[in-house]
## 1
Amino acid sequence: QVQLQQSGPGLVKASQILSLTCVISGDSVSSNSAGWNWIRQSPSGGLEWLGRTYYRSKWENDYAVSVKSRIIINPDTSKNQFSLQLNSVTPEDTALYFCARGRGGLHYFDYWGQGTLVTVSS
Amino acid sequence: IVLTQSPGTLSLSPGARATLSCRASQSVSSNYLAWYQQKPGRAPRLLIYGASTRATGIPDRFSGSGSGTDFTLTIRRLEPEDFAIYYCQQYGSSRYNFGQGTKLEI
């Protein structure tokens, strides 16, 4: 059974860096058949995919256009986890952040973390 | 691709049949369309992928259909635990996105 456990601060100041970690159990961050994603949900309920990291002979990343200039998603094979770094946050980045496993080359999301509410204070 | 879900809110009684729609602004490649259920305070739960394949452990009262730009999630004989918000998601391109959701209420 795959489980994803998220951690990270719930409060970040504007212009600072948002950092979250997702620990994987029951699968490997280096899996050739999965990708590891970050998705957020705005206070109004809309879901937004932010990006992913995945291994296919080498490490690759895809990022949403909306955050591409300020996002980094990194794998950590030694701890079987992956992380989200979102730079220069604003109050508009306030959201519930989820990590999720994506299946296949193009993803649907079959396992999700529990969610972390991140508030960006001005 | 923009996904538009309708209706925004659907009010039904337990035992009824629910029909939720997801319309894409352009054709979804290979019918790579998924449906999720979300309850308050919880992460979304995968119900359907590939437009019509039920995920592991999903009851057979949930079914998905459609192709191209028009997709449907049908829930026959609603159970009390089915009242939630439902989202569709396309993964036909690597820029994944979701519909805005349909709230299914009693």
## 2
Amino acid sequence: NAGVTQTPKFQVLKTGQSMTLQCAQDMNHNSMYWYRQDPGMGLRLIYYSASEGTTDKGEVPNGYNVSRLNKREFSLRLESAAPSQTSVYFCASRKRGNTEAFFGQGTRLTVV
Amino acid sequence: GQQLNQSPQSMFIQEGEDVSMNCTSSSIFNTWLWYKQDPGEGPVLLIALYKAGELTSNGRLTAQFGTTRKDSFLNISASIPSDVGIYFCAGLRDDKIIFGKGTRLHILP
């Protein structure tokens, strides 16, 4: 029973490099989310997807793109990484009609 | 920017003490949520609140949905060492879940 799986768990990038953070859920949930967590800032919503084929901006979308590849997978892409994007990134999913969102274990990204 | 203001930012308490924290919003939410995050883990849902004025308990935890729908409170009674962590309030609206900045709870030996 995997729940929400994020890969990779750790990543170091150089400024300007690109990468994609992967997220997959096996709970048949409709909604998926990407958050970033910085010290003292809590969790800030980057993008979310209410269903397959739809994506919407959250509170801090600049510098990121997302793809809802299918119902299971929701990826987050950094096209040109910046040091300000150093953070812990969490993916979450939620079944429509339920309030509980289930989180992955996070991806710790450092941009140097 | 974030719409939820959570206080206090951190708390240092003795084991056995009760804890109170609160969350206020500039806008109305239809559902209030309280999450806990342990080190190195993602947040886990503790309590969900659906109606203004609602008071809900989960073991030693009690949460209330404010009557204005713009605030919520979480109380922890008789704290124990495993209560250490970060507590987040969150509001759900239009499929978006918005989090507060969190209250970090420390328990002194």
